[in-house]
Design goal:
single chain; about 300 residues; alpha/beta; 8-stranded mixed sheet
Length: about 300
């Protein structure tokens, strides 16, 4: 694992991947590098204009890449269901649950959930369930990779207040949504193992990578000075999106990845080549993960039917 880079990605020819949030940042780099190695990649993005522009740019940067845009808004469960229903691929080898929002002012999804919990966790929970049978039909080494964050340490999920209705704090909400990602991976891995499935569920986090994720919240509030400050820190402190994508790419493609693995940058959860990462003990709590799973099924209406389609 030492010094692992995108050049170490094994050949992906014959494999099909879905990458959410693939129009920019870490998602774009993840999709591009998979395509460069021969994978057929579906760019699952909310904004059609930006998604199609990303598709064109990716074709220019990776000549011969087999990529296509498909619209997906994780903050709208009808959109998640439509994406799954319209997906023409009958088998998938890789699902990268990459898209996310960070530290937004209080917002609600179309379905009324707190935006960070609803987008980062519930949308991906529903998507994975709706695509599970296609992943199970995939080739050897089929994987689900979910992007979390080192900031999951900010807080675990509160089952009594999943939507933070009582006191909303943007960074705590973000940390809870990222803990939810890890609890989801833990429970999915446990269930896949129990079913004897060959699909592997793993997680990754990028450390501190310079993307538009950091500026979205302050831009919503039209705080220009704060946006400039964040951009300055991104330029001077953060690693690149290319480096930030390495843990996701490792989790998605490297040999030896195991159920419930969590990869991040080598240096203090911040930067460097990917290694197995530290994680809060609560993200491996069987009772908490099972409780969140049951709540997620209830809230999304998506039940994982291991005998047939979700």
């Amino acid at each position: 694992m030492n010094g692992w880079t995108a050049s170490d990605i094994p050949d992906q020819s014959g494999r099909t991947a879905v990458v959410t949030g693939a129009n920019s940042g870490i998602g774009y780099v993840t999709a591009r590098e998979l395509a460069r190695k021969g994978a057929r990649v579906v760019l699952a993005c909310r904004d059609a204009t930006r998604g199609k522009a990303a598709e064109e740019l990716m074709r220019a940067q990776a000549p011969g890449a087999e990529v296509r845009f498909a619209q997906l808004d994780l903050a709208d469960l009808d959109s998640v269901r439509a994406f799954a229903a319209d997906l023409t691929e009958d088998r998938l080898d890789l699902l990268v649950n990459n898209a996310g929002v960070m530290a937004l002012p209080h917002r609600r999804t179309v379905d009324g959930f707190e935006m960070q919990f609803g987008t980062n966790h519930l949308g991906h929970f529903a998507l994975t369930g709706l695509l599970l049978q296609r992943l199970r039909a995939g080739g050897p080494g089929a994987r689900v990779v979910t992007l979390s964050s080192g900031l999951h340490y900010l807080g675990t999920v509160d089952p009594r207040d999943l939507n933070m209705d009582h006191r909303y704090r943007r960074w705590i909400a973000y940390g809870r949504s990222k803990s939810a990602n890890l609890l989801f991976v833990h429970e999915l891995a446990r269930r896949l193992t129990a079913e004897g499935s060959a699909v592997v569920a793993a997680a990754a986090h990028p450390g501190y990578a310079a993307t538009n994720l950091q500026t979205a919240g302050v831009r919503m509030e039209e705080r220009a000075w704060a946006e400039r400050a964040v951009e300055f820190v991104n330029r001077t402190v953060a690693q690149s999106a290319e480096d930030g994508a390495l843990p996701s790419l490792y989790a998605a493609t490297a040999p030896g990845v195991e159920q419930d693995d969590f990869f991040g940058p080598r240096v203090q959860l911040w930067r460097g080549s990917p290694v197995r990462s530290l994680r809060a003990g609560w993200t491996r709590d069987d009772r908490a993960s099972a409780g969140l799973w049951a709540a997620s099924e209830r809230l999304t209406g998506v039940r994982y039917d291991w005998r047939g389609a979700a």
